[in-house]
Write a structure and sequence with these properties.
The protein has 502 residues and is an alpha/beta fold. The chain is built from ten helices and 22 strands.
């Protein structure tokens, strides 16, 4: 009897480390970032849109925290994604502006990134959707063999991505190191320098298009849509635009299901609502606002599928789910999809000036809402200043990891609902004009670049002189106070100089 009792005690002691490890594992929240593309601050009903309804996105806000003062770090996608994943402003590194579809990998593989940090914290990590951060070594990727470095070299256990954007070749999916469904007998060739092969192009064969281009998208036709760049081969591997949201959402849901019993990090970077906007037939005509509005409805469905999966698996309570966008809104971005014509009074940027590409608020002030039922009070609103560059340091604090992040600041308190945290943020426009916001003030440094992107009809916010706006009194940035407040100009320009020299 005594031997049996001793055996039971020893067995119980042996189990303690396993039980303890499991308890710690269960305490770590799952983390999901749904990173949308080109969604403006005013594009969701949670932020006041009345011409379109986004009930699933609104569910996150009703069950969690909605930010009114959150920013991407840049007004275009590649630098925003770079800074989110590295905790470093993209303008510190050459080659981080909008990447061509055949760009080499621009993320560092010899430095810690947000996914690699979370890997070390015990997370299973995945990226699903748009990548647009380059692939392969110097000279770019070889599309017909293992493509390295890529997402797996910077901390993702699994990746299912489009290499660049929906409007750039190659129009194929990539899973981990290989192009999906690639036939070796039909190899892929890509060029951004000039036409290759005999594939029809939008410029030469407009009669083959199901969606005409308005500017800049006149090269190889894939699935009835002409793109940026030329491509031959890979016919079996080419995507069908109408199915893309279903494909990406299916992969995201599958990753959640496979990892429901251990902490996971999912970076779900949707294609919607970037051009070309070719939503599934389930959504066509449903918004009354044309392809752009229908793509917003498709995006909302995508969010609903993730929410429903978390509920079905009973893991929603301990999942930190963040929904935000890589930059502000753009309406006409290269295709004749009637997006401008059918706005019907909808204002994608809300009251903000500018949009995608711009140094004005519409370029980088984005929707951001989060839900973590175990920790964050439902139905709350925060006006805390928040930058996406702070996800890195905040998640490190959340998981107990020590990091060396040059620009990322621990804003975990803001993510949990505290009203104030960040002292200042820096933003970047398409031509690398920098702005800084501190308190109520925004300073845009002088730049002699064009004042307007004529193709997208967007104010870029460039001026040969300094600009200063009081965002509390002038949310639409109409009154440049630089000549009346030289002291504030001096303070903010010096602060921006200090950040640049860090």
């Amino acid at each position: 009897m005594l031997k049996r009792i001793i055996s039971l005690i020893l067995f119980s002691l042996a189990l303690l480390p396993m039980i303890s490890a499991q308890a710690v594992s269960q305490q770590k929240p799952n983390i999901i970032i749904i990173y949308t593309d080109d969604l403006g601050f005013g594009d969701i009903s949670a932020n006041g849109a009345t011409k379109i309804s986004t009930p699933n996105i609104d569910r996150i806000a009703k069950g969690g925290l909605r930010f009114t003062n959150a920013y991407a770090t840049a007004a275009t996608c590649t630098p925003s994604r770079f800074s989110l994943l590295t905790g470093k402003y993209a303008w510190r590194k050459a080659g981080t502006n909008i990447a061509p579809g055949d760009a080499a990998m621009i993320l560092p593989t010899n430095e810690e990134t947000m996914p690699s940090m979370l890997q070390k914290a015990g997370y299973q990590t995945a990226v699903v959707g748009k990548w647009h951060l380059g692939l392969g070594g110097e000279g770019g990727p070889d599309w017909n063999s293992d493509i390295k470095p890529g997402p797996l070299e910077v901390g993702f256990n699994y990746s299912f991505i489009m290499p660049a954007t929906g409007d750039r070749v190659p129009c194929v999916y990539m899973e981990n190191y290989r192009i999906v469904d690639l036939d070796p007998a039909d190899p892929i060739t890509v060029s951004y320098k000039g036409k290759i092969g005999n594939e029809p192009s939008g410029k030469e064969n407009p009669e083959l298009l199901k969606m005409k281009y308005s500017h800049g998208h006149d090269a190889t036709i894939i699935n009835g849509v002409s793109r940026i760049g030329w491509m031959t081969g890979g016919k079996k591997a080419r995507w069908i635009d109408e199915d893309m949201a279903d494909v990406f959402t299916g992969r995201a849901v599958n990753f959640i299901e496979k990892n429901k019993q251990k902490p996971f990090f999912l970076f779900f970077a949707t294609h919607d609502i970037h051009v070309p906007r070719v939503p599934h037939s389930r959504f066509v005509g449903k918004s009354g606002m044309g392809a752009r509005g229908d793509a917003i409805l498709q995006l909302d469905w995508t969010v609903g599928e993730v929410l429903n999966t978390l509920d079905r698996l009973k893991i929603a309570d301990n999942t930190l789910l963040i929904f935000t966008s890589d930059n502000g809104a753009v309406v006409d971005d290269g295709y004749e999809d009637r997006a401008v014509e059918l706005l019907n009074g909808h204002t994608p940027s809300g009251i903000l000036r500018g949009g995608k590409y711009s140094a004005f608020e519409g370029g980088t002030k984005v929707p951001m809402i989060l839900r973590w039922p175990a920790k964050v009070k439902a139905g709350t609103v925060s006006d805390a200043l928040f930058s996406q560059i702070d996800f890195f340091a905040s998640f490190a604090a959340l998981t107990g990891r020590k990091i060396k992040a040059q620009d990322s600041f621990n804003s975990l308190n803001a993510l949990l609902g505290a009203n104030k945290n960040r002292d200042f943020i820096v933003q970047q426009s398409v031509n690398s004009t920098l702005s800084i916001i501190q308190g109520n003030w925004k300073y845009i440094e002088p730049n002699d670049g064009p004042k307007r992107n004529e193709m997208t009809n967007t104010e870029l916010g460039n001026d040969s002189g300094p600009q200063l706006y009081n965002l509390k009194e002038d949310k639409t940035e109409q009154n440049n106070l630089s000549k009346r407040n030289t002291l504030q100009i001096k303070l903010l320009s010096e602060k921006l100089k200090e950040v640049k020299e860090m």
